[in-house]
């Protein structure tokens, strides 16, 4: 296995001009596949509220849910650095609560760092979390937890004032100790200026090619939802098509009685003559039969 990616690896990647590859993951199986595919960073994004839970925003996502998904992703990731998103209202109330919740993501979710949305107004919060030895990734631009304040999911920093404020926010987060910054829904010229102004890496989503790395929601890049195609998303596969086709074939074979065939069925031991089932008395547990055939791992778990 290649060395585990750390926040220091990411800094070196920026210094050497190599792009950082980040993608979201929400469970152990996807984490394993994306890790094997070469991800440097797996983000357990609160986007799970939308793509996993079917909510229309990230706002209902809770700390317990983030801990649960973070732990699953961390089990699947071997090389990639795992970042856990701090959900809405887990860090906005006070730096004290933010440190406690960031600590939960690290201790219970086993992540290597946490991410939070917001600019200079959260510099003290970032500082407090970093002081607790928990690395923090910032997130500027289109920050989905502020959907009501933004009046929708709209590109940010288009005019000069807004662009200046975002640059100042980026510098404030770096100064507060953030080790990297997500730039979401930002004009590419502004993302380039911010990237060139910071020593820490920027990771863009809908922020153009000048960022030090890129992130996409894994379901988007894999083409899981044919109805969702914003400008910044490129589909690198058509899993919606592959899955509906595979599932359709499975259902057809079940209906036709051609699945399961002999190759996918177990056989009784030789000389067994089956009679009507004898009821097993209360509290009696059937022991495995002599020479029982082991199924091995089930449900596609890694072995
Ligand atoms: O929640 C998320 O998935 C994110 C990324 C899109 C950056 O914050």
Automatic annotation (TrEMBL):
<dbReference type="InterPro" id="IPR003700">
    <property type="entry name" value="Pantoate_hydroxy_MeTrfase"/>
</dbReference>
<keyword id="KW-0479">Metal-binding</keyword>
<feature type="binding site">
    <location>
        <position position="117"/>
    </location>
    <ligand>
        <name>Mg(2+)</name>
    </ligand>
</feature>
<comment type="function">
    <text>Catalyzes the reversible reaction in which hydroxymethyl group from 5,10-methylenetetrahydrofolate is transferred onto alpha-ketoisovalerate to form ketopantoate.</text>
</comment>
<dbReference type="Pfam" id="PF02548">
    <property type="entry name" value="Pantoate_transf"/>
</dbReference>
<feature type="binding site">
    <location>
        <begin position="46"/>
        <end position="47"/>
    </location>
    <ligand>
        <name>3-methyl-2-oxobutanoate</name>
    </ligand>
</feature>
<feature type="binding site">
    <location>
        <position position="85"/>
    </location>
    <ligand>
        <name>Mg(2+)</name>
    </ligand>
</feature>
<comment type="subunit">
    <text>Homodecamer; pentamer of dimers.</text>
</comment>
<dbReference type="GO" id="GO:0003864">
    <property type="term" value="F:3-methyl-2-oxobutanoate hydroxymethyltransferase activity"/>
</dbReference>
<keyword id="KW-0566">Pantothenate biosynthesis</keyword>
<keyword id="KW-0808">Transferase</keyword>
<dbReference type="InterPro" id="IPR015813">
    <property type="entry name" value="Pyrv/PenolPyrv_kinase-like_dom"/>
</dbReference>
<dbReference type="InterPro" id="IPR040442">
    <property type="entry name" value="Pyrv_kinase-like_dom_sf"/>
</dbReference>
<feature type="binding site">
    <location>
        <position position="46"/>
    </location>
    <ligand>
        <name>Mg(2+)</name>
    </ligand>
</feature>
<protein>
    <recommendedName>
        <fullName>3-methyl-2-oxobutanoate hydroxymethyltransferase</fullName>
        <ecNumber>2.1.2.11</ecNumber>
    </recommendedName>
</protein>
<keyword id="KW-0963">Cytoplasm</keyword>
<comment type="pathway">
    <text>Cofactor biosynthesis; (R)-pantothenate biosynthesis; (R)-pantoate from 3-methyl-2-oxobutanoate: step 1/2.</text>
</comment>
<comment type="similarity">
    <text>Belongs to the PanB family.</text>
</comment>
<feature type="binding site">
    <location>
        <position position="115"/>
    </location>
    <ligand>
        <name>3-methyl-2-oxobutanoate</name>
    </ligand>
</feature>
<feature type="active site" description="Proton acceptor">
    <location>
        <position position="184"/>
    </location>
</feature>
<feature type="binding site">
    <location>
        <position position="85"/>
    </location>
    <ligand>
        <name>3-methyl-2-oxobutanoate</name>
    </ligand>
</feature>
<keyword id="KW-0460">Magnesium</keyword>
């Amino acid at each position: 296995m290649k060395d585990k990616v750390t926040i220091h690896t990411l800094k070196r990647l920026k210094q050497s001009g190599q792009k950082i590859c980040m993608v979201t993951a929400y469970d152990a199986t996807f984490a394993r596949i994306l890790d094997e595919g070469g991800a440097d960073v797996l983000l357990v994004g609160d986007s799970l509220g939308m793509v996993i839970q079917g909510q229309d925003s990230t706002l209902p996502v809770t700390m317990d849910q983030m801990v649960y998904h973070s732990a699953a992703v961390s089990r699947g990731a071997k090389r990639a650095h795992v970042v856990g998103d701090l959900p809405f209202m887990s860090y906005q109330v006070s730096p004290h609560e933010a440190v406690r919740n960031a600590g939960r993501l690290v201790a219970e979710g086993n992540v290597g760092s946490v991410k939070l949305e917001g600019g200079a107004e959260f510099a003290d919060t970032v500082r407090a979390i970093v002081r607790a030895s928990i690395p923090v990734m910032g997130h500027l631009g289109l920050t989905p937890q502020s959907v009501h304040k933004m009046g929708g999911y709209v590109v940010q920093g288009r005019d000069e004032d807004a662009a200046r404020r975002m640059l100042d926010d980026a510098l404030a987060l770096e100064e507060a100790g953030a080790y990297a910054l997500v730039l979401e829904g930002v004009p590419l010229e502004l993302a380039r200026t911010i990237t060139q102004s910071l020593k820490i890496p920027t990771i863009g989503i809908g922020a153009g090619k000048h960022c030090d790395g890129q992130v996409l929601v894994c379901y988007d890049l894999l083409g899981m939802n044919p109805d969702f195609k914003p400008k910044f998303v490129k589909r690198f596969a058509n899993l919606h098509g592959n899955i509906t086709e595979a599932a359709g074939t499975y259902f057809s074979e079940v209906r036709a009685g051609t699945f399961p065939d002999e190759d996918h069925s177990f056989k009784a031991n030789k000389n067994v003559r089956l009679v009507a089932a004898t009821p097993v008395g209360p509290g009696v547990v059937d022991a495995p039969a002599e020479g029982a055939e082991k199924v091995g791992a089930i449900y596609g778990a890694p072995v």
